[in-house]
Design brief:
heterodimer; A: about 110 residues; mainly beta; six-stranded mixed sheet; three-stranded antiparallel sheet; B: about 110 residues; four-stranded antiparallel sheet; 11 strands
Chain lengths: ~110, ~110
């Protein structure tokens, strides 16, 4: 299985909105609603911030939102804050009953 | 709230088998329909899903690792385990256990070196 495709890096200024894409195929992202997003600060454990494409776990600010169109899922962070600077990973269930991650995106808050 | 804790040797010799255990607290590994996963992350690199197991014992593995991976569950100890055989330096990583996608252990660094 091939890793999902994410941009290596994105950046934005405080208060702005950014979007991170996650592109797969019809055998993973496009075929299922089981797309998740994780935030990972340096030296820390990944934290689930979006599950099933667009649902936020309790405690995750509503500045974080997820969506999907075809084989591409997206994470949008609005009202960017300094604390949002981190690595972001997407994951998807696949047709062979496995999980596949994206390569990760480094978000820099300017 | 469920908590997970990885344990096992931090150093493994090349060609040997890497063995890790994940101890679950705050909930029974047998309850619900959760799956229990192993994920790894080499230093400075991305996440790689290794595989998962259900309390029934049913497993799914990453095709790229399938020939070397075994995940098992011990419901009496509320633990599940990872065995990765014939390791090389490329298997050096932080290894995480997780329940579903929401609850992760803190991770444990395993270095493969002679």
């Amino acid at each position: 299985q091939s890793a999902l495709t994410q941009p290596a890096s994105v950046s934005g200024s405080p208060g702005q909105s950014i979007t991170i894409s996650c592109t797969g195929t019809s055998s993973d992202v496009g075929g299922y609603k089981y797309v998740s997003w994780y935030q990972q600060h340096p030296g820390r454990t990944p934290k689930l911030i979006i599950y099933e494409v667009s649902n936020r776990p309790s405690g995750v600010p509503d500045r974080f939102s997820g969506s999907k169109s075809g084989d591409t899922a997206s994470l949008t962070i609005s009202g960017l804050q300094a604390e949002d600077e981190a690595d972001y990973y997407c994951s998807s269930y696949t047709s062979i009953r496995t999980l596949v991650f994206g390569g990760g995106t480094k978000l820099t808050v300017l | 709230q469920v908590q997970l804790q990885e344990s096992g040797p931090g150093l493994v010799k090349p060609s040997q088998t890497l063995s890790l255990t994940c101890t679950v607290s705050g909930g029974s590994i047998s309850s619900g329909t959760y799956h229990w996963s192993w994920i790894r992350q080499p230093a400075g690199k991305g996440l790689e899903w290794i595989g998962r197991i259900y309390s029934s014992g049913s497993t799914n593995y990453n095709p790229s690792l399938k020939s070397r991976v075994t995940i098992s569950v011990d419901t009496s100890k509320n633990q599940f385990s990872l065995n990765l055989s014939s390791v090389t330096a490329a298997d050096t990583a932080v290894y995480y256990c997780a329940r579903g996608t929401a609850f992760w252990g803190q991770g444990t660094l395993v270095t493969v070196s002679s």
